[in-house]
Amino acid sequence: MSELNPPSSPLLPLKLTGQDTFRFRCHKEISCFNQCCKMIDVTLAPYDIIRLKRRLEMTSNEFLSLYTYPFEMDGHGMPGVKLKPLEETTVCPFVTEEGCGVYEDRPTACRYYALGLMAMRLQDSPTDENLYFKVKEDHCLGHQENQEQTIDEYRKEQGVEEYDQVNRGWQQIILKKRSAGPAIGRPSPRSYQLYFMACYNVDSFRDFVFSPGFLDSYDLKNENVDELKKDDVAMQLFAFRFLKQVLYAEMSIPLKPEAEAKRLKRLEELKRLNPYDNDLGSDEPSLVD
């Protein structure tokens, strides 16, 4: 708990479920309106990037270059992206005097405010679950408003359910990496390059999927290929499945028989030539080598 809630953290250390109630309301007449948007520290989830790049009519490459910066999500360098403030400020690039300029497509973290979300898997549980925390910052007066609601009601009002549904595969990948513990060591740069592309750059990942090398290796006969070519959300969900397969061996996209045979033959030949090398095959992407 101390790691999640250091002394300076605005997160209150009480874990809440969807049926718990809290009091909060944000509106234009409140004196602190827009203050949270002038002191941003917003981690972007994959679906946030899809919604914002669509809104701005950009490619994911363009959006990442202009509006984000990378950061390390943990001590092993797991890559994440944050929304870039206006130059030499902490101000959101999309805030206006009237409020959020991209309100209908605002990021997950903005929709959840003034709540924090944590995905976790209890010991011996086969599934993950979401827990919530109140976020109380000194500038925010919304907690003094009279409106009370359950967390599930607030999530529905803020339109966050769709975001959580699309981002769930990403949360599961992060959760599995963290639950593996420190013994796994630092994953390879190649693993993280693949992870970054698949999670945050859907346009580049689409080019990767429809490249000759990928199509020669993976059998897409059970996939809706036309949908993958046109629909960013469908491609993002496919990307999560692909990551779970190559990183955690959760198989859902079949390899073509000849591709698997070539891979095994290549590994056998390498082992024959280097019988004492225990790292053969370690160039395969993995977050839990």
Textual characterization of the structure:
The chain has helices at 46-55, 60-67, 108-112, 151-157, 161-179, 189-200, 202-209, 212-217, 225-230, 232-248, 257-273; strands at residues 21-23, 68-72, 79-83, 95-96, 99-100, 115-120, 129-134, 148-150. Residues 1-7 and 279-283 have low confidence and may be disordered. A hairpin with an 8-residue loop joins strand 6 (115-120) and strand 7 (129-134). It is elongated, with a radius of gyration of 21 Å. It has 2 domains: 21-165, no CATH class; 179-273, no CATH class. The chain has 11 helices and 8 strands.
Q: Report the count of strand segments.
A: 8
Supply Rg. 21 Å
Kindly report the average pLDDT value. 87
Largest sheet: 2 strands, antiparallel
What is the ordering of alpha helices and beta strands? EHHEEEEHEEEHHHHHHHH
Please count the helical segments.
11
Question: For the terminal residues, how far apart are their CA atoms?
Answer: 27 Å
Shape: elongated
Write the layout of secondary structure elements.
Layout: E1 21-23, H1 46-55, H2 60-67, E2 68-72, E3 79-83, E4 95-96, E5 99-100, H3 108-112, E6 115-120, E7 129-134, E8 148-150, H4 151-157, H5 161-179, H6 189-200, H7 202-209, H8 212-217, H9 225-230, H10 232-248, H11 257-273
Antiparallel strand pairs: 1-8, 2-3, 4-5, 6-7
Helix pairs in contact: 1-2, 5-10, 6-10, 7-10
